[in-house]
Design goal:
By secondary structure, the protein is an alpha+beta fold. It has helices at about 15-35, 40-45, 60-65, 95-110, 125-150, 155-180, 185-215, 220-250, 255-275, 280-290; strands spanning about 45-50, 70-75, 85-90, 115-120. Helix 6 (about 155-180) crosses helix 10 (about 280-290), helix 7 runs antiparallel to helix 8 and helix 8 (about 220-250) runs antiparallel to helix 9. It starts with 12 loop residues before the first helix and ends in a 14-residue tail after the last helix.
Amino acid sequence: MFTLRQFSYMKYRKIFYLISVGLILLGLCFGLIRGFNFGIDFTGGTMMQLDMGREISVSQLDKVLKTNGIEADIVHAGDENEQVIIRTVQALDTAAREELLNDIFQEFELTDDSVLTIEQFGPSVGEMLKKNAVRALILAGIGMLIYIIIRFEWKFGIAAIISVIHDILIMIAFYGFFYIPINNPFIAALLTLVGYSINDTIVVFDRIRENLNIMKKNKLEELIDTSINQTVVRSLMTSATTVLAIIPLYILGGQTIRDFTLPLMVGIVAGAASSIFIASPIYYEICQATGGPKYKARKSKRKS
């Protein structure tokens, strides 16, 4: 079996912990002090879709919005980008909407017929989305914990859940540090990441479980190091090829696709790192605290 040069992950585990905790705290501090950039899906606001009759650059339209003191996300729509969708985090009343639309009509020679739809979003919708997202993550975590306890043992389950929480916090910290809008696609990417990350972690845990029956005379840290080294190439190559497949979507896709693929790429990188540097060391820490691994692999039924 092909492996990289034997590297002692257990020896440097505390350094990995410090790096992860440092990145998470840095991003969360930026997000909490400056405030996270919640999109219209969470804050409430106004959404307007207009048929411009031709492709208008975002900068041209943004100039009109700024003269009205309005900050908004602008994306193109339609087969030839002749439509625009304007999302503001400010709930515009009737007077403000009319003033803005009159300026847009005058600047781009449009009429009332150019307005395709106008919708108002209240902050209560955003609160509901937050609650549903948290519930979905909790239910997913409970389901994964039950599966891993049945398939492996509870020590693996706890370590896997901590690893998933680490990946979620890394994504939130990334968005807090770079002030990227948090919206519906972010939640979808977050839930996708949870399933992807746990799959990568289970591959490493499965190898540890196999080696528990093979390397009985080795110390636990040596066994875990060997298991990670045996699976690290697979983990890195799987994550790298997945990210490479997503990059063209991010470059060529529209704004909605970018909003989904960006957190997905960040999460995949974080998930690959956590399955190698966090999940298995946490399992080791739990074993040390509880008196070592209790799991015994099933004996083969094959007769010699």
